[in-house]
Amino acid sequence: MTATLEPSVGTGAKASTGTSPADVIRRAKEAGVQIVDVRFTDLPGTWQHFSIPLKALEEDTFTDGLGFDGSSIRGFQAINESDMLLLPDPASAFVDPCLQVPTLSLTCDIVDPITREPYSRDPRYVARKAEAFLKKSGVATTAYFGPEAEFYIFNSVRFDQNAHEGYYHIDSEEGIWNSGTNGTANLGHRPRHKEGYFPVPPTDRLQDLRSKITLAMIAAGIEVEVHHHEVGTAGQTEIDMRYNTLTRMADQIMMYKYIVKNVCYQNGYTATFMPKPMFGDNGSGMHVHMSLWNGTNNLFFDKNGYALISESARWYIGGLIKHAAALLAFAAPTTNSYRRLVPGYEAPINLIYSQRNRSAIGSLRPRAGGAEACEEHAGKPAGIVGGAGGRPRLPARRWRVHPGSH
User: Fold this and answer.
1) At what angle do helices 246-266 and 380-388 cross, to 10 degrees?
2) Nearest Cα to Cα of residue 264 among 155, 370, 175
3) Residue 1 pairs with which residues in a beta bridge?
4) What integer pLDDT is reported at residue 184 of this predicted model?
5) The domain 21-121 is classified under which CATH number: 3.10.20.70, 2.60.120.280, 3.40.1190.20, 3.30.1330.10?
């Protein structure tokens, strides 16, 4: 069983097929599932979960919901109003590729048990509202997002902060600093700083591990386009997914991080999506390819425009630049984020848009067939609102935010 909600026909992606609660239960039984794991995202963005036996999953569960204590989840409820409900989304169902006991995973929406209203602090609800806002604005019918998530795979991570010491220590068999170690036989073949992109094995020691991660993602219903070693020594990695709609892609990002961390853990490694875990080498970001569509019409494409982008795309970029300070609260929320955003490490450090320029916040990349993708280093739900804020919702020019000349 895999997740089934996909982009619509006409954009190069698979057609959507509806999944009912009865379908989920029937297919889970056919797959030999024994446990159902229900998951939701908390306010800081961590996937939370609890599990029930398969026999406890009934069709009514998808409408009646499953209760949990909202006061024990960061940023959610106070103790005097702690009860909340999870409503499993049948379209999110997949058999977990990382667990030994056959387990069905269901991503859930959060609702108030009294009013049955969607929970305002549920990130999934925020994503759904952003998609509804886009349609209501009249700007476009659909927005697609294709993130390129980067991460490091280490062999060891140690850190502590206490009364008599404070430190962190990371290690990687692939790290160039291990060229002189002499415990066991040293076989060499390590990428130097900023030279990990992308020699073949044995310099790239993580080929098989990345392939295992990729196959686990595919088994979970994620369409993977490519995997490769990234620039950083010591195991920097990138695995790219095919674009999808906002809420579905947000679900896939949670699946992506979960699968990466678990496959690495099971193979004796530890993975981190920390923006800048290591001084003197590239940090990890999540470049996001964005496009707006009316049906099958790509609103960002103009064969006569600069970098083949339309005026609508320029207004979209203008909205992102105008709202950059607010967007960064979501896209770069930690002090470590800004240790990455420095010159010399392929990070977006300029509030500009430019063709093929990776230091620009809006980098316009050539694509096969002459199409262009607007790559924006910003949060996904906020990206719709920020970008649409630059596009006119009324004919008056006062609604347009131009990003300036290239």
Assistant:
1) 150
2) 155
3) none
4) 86
5) 3.10.20.70
293-340 pLDDT, tens digit each: 998 899 988 888 888 888 988 888 888 888 888 988 888 889 999 999
- Taking every pair of Cα atoms in the chain, the longest distance, rounded to a whole number of angstroms, is 71
Distance, in Å, from the CA atom of 191 to the CA atom of 235, rounded to the nearest integer, reads 9
- CATH class of the region 142-399: alpha beta
pTM of the model as a whole? 0.88
Q: Cα(85)–Cα(308) distance, rounded to whole angstroms?
A: 47
What is the three-state SS of the chain? CCCCCCCCCCCCCCCCCCCCHHHHHHHHHHCCCCEEEEEEECCCCCEEEEEEEHHHCCCCHHHHCEEEEHHHCCCCCCHHHCEEEEEECHHHCEECCCCCCCEEEEEEEEECCCCCCECCCCHHHHHHHHHHHHHHHCCCCEEEEEEEEEEEEECEEEEEECCCCEEEEEECCCCHHHHHCCCCCCCCCCCCCCCCCCCCCCCCCCHHHHHHHHHHHHHCCCCEEEEEECCCCCCEEEEEECCEEHHHHHHHHHHHHHHHHHHHHHCCCEEECCCCCCCCCCCCCEEEEEEEEECCEECCECCCCHHHECHHHHHHHHHHHHCHHHHHHHHCCCHHHHHHCCCCCCCCCEEEEEECCCCEEEEEEECHHHCEEEEECCCHHHHHHHHHCCCCCCCCHHHCCCCCCC
> Would you say 133 and 383 are in contact if contact means Cβ atoms under 8 Å apart?
no
Q: Return the structure tokens found at 364.
A: 């316009």
Torsion of CA 178, 181, 184, 187, to 10 degrees: 50
Mean pLDDT, rounded, for 61-79: 92
Best CA proximity match to 60, nearest among 84, 81, 90, 33: 90
pLDDT tier, 244 (very low <50, low <70, confident <90, very high otherwise): very high
Q: How do the domains of the chain map onto residue ranges? A: 21-121, 142-399
For helices 380-388 and 311-322, angle between their N-to-C axes, nearest 10 degrees: 110
